[in-house]
Amino acid sequence: ETESGAVVWTVDADPTMRSPLDAVRPLDVPEWLRWDGSGFNSIERPWQSWQRVRVAQIADRLVAIAMVSRGEGARSWTSTNGVEWSELPLPVSPALNTPIAVHANADEIIVSMSNGEQARDWTTTDGERFAELPAVPGINLRTRGEFGWVAPDPDGEPIVRVSIDGQQWDEIDLADELGFDAARWDGSVEVTALDSSIFVVATVDDQRTLLHGRVDSAAAEAPS
């Protein structure tokens, strides 16, 4: 307990708990709060208290997706004001009790989920409709610049993938620039597009390398 007497965490052998993980979950129900300019107000939420939800903004909407859930029922919702929510149909029905990964940036929200047979990535730019993304490693981490998109290798290989239209992707091998030619357990490679630039940050142990490249959009769009 805190000094005020509020219970933060508790461990119990309550026989009504559904799984061992329930023993280390907070007993109080998380609240959904909305800032109105002068303070936070508690409002109703459409999801269940045991669902772990990610809320992100895209265009003029909020999108809420239950990354962790159990049983059947809705797992995504959309709202224009954070108060009134409606169910947002997912493009496929996720397999029962499987997690949904959510990656959001200023341009889009990407969800990665499995229907029980294969995992795929889907994007929404308006919070209303989803479009399937091509099966490109790391595409769920892509970012957009003036020239198109870049994506890191999800396994930490010294590779950057680049696309003009988001459909056809090319690989850039940075092994010589980064000093290693394969994924490392103590390393990571991150890539970000910003305007006409590509930034690559590679971390190996306690050493960090930053690469900066510029893309000529006119040259990139020129037919080969």
What is the number of helical segments per DSSP (H or I, 4+ residues)? 2
Cα-atom radius of gyration:
21 Å
Mind describing the biggest β-sheet?
A: 4 strands, antiparallel
| Strand order in the largest sheet | 3-4-5-6
User: How would you state the average pLDDT, rounded?
Assistant: 85
Percent of residues in helical segments?
under 10%
Overall SS class: mainly beta
Report how far apart the termini are.
67 Å
Strand content: 35-45%
Overall 3D form: globular
Q: Which consecutive residue ranges, at least 5 long each, have pLDDT under 50?
A: 1-17
The ordered string of helix (H) and strand (E) elements is: EEEEEEEEEEEEEEHEEEH
Query: How many beta-strand segments?
Result: 17
List keywords for this structure.
single chain; 224 residues; mainly beta; 4-stranded antiparallel beta sheet; disordered N terminus
Protein model, in words:
The chain has 224 residues and is mainly beta. It has helices at residues 175-178, 217-221; strands at residues 32-35, 40-43, 52-58, 61-68, 76-79, 85-87, 101-104, 109-114, 119-124, 131-132, 143-144, 149-152, 159-163, 170-173, 187-194, 197-204, 207-214. The protein has a four-stranded antiparallel sheet with strand order 3-4-5-6, with no helix packed on it. It has a four-stranded antiparallel sheet with strand order 7-8-9-10, with no helix packed on it. A four-stranded antiparallel sheet has the order 11-12-13-14, with no helix packed on it. The longest helix is centred in the C-terminal third of the chain and has 5 residues, at 217-221. The protein starts with 31 loop residues before the first strand and ends with a helix.
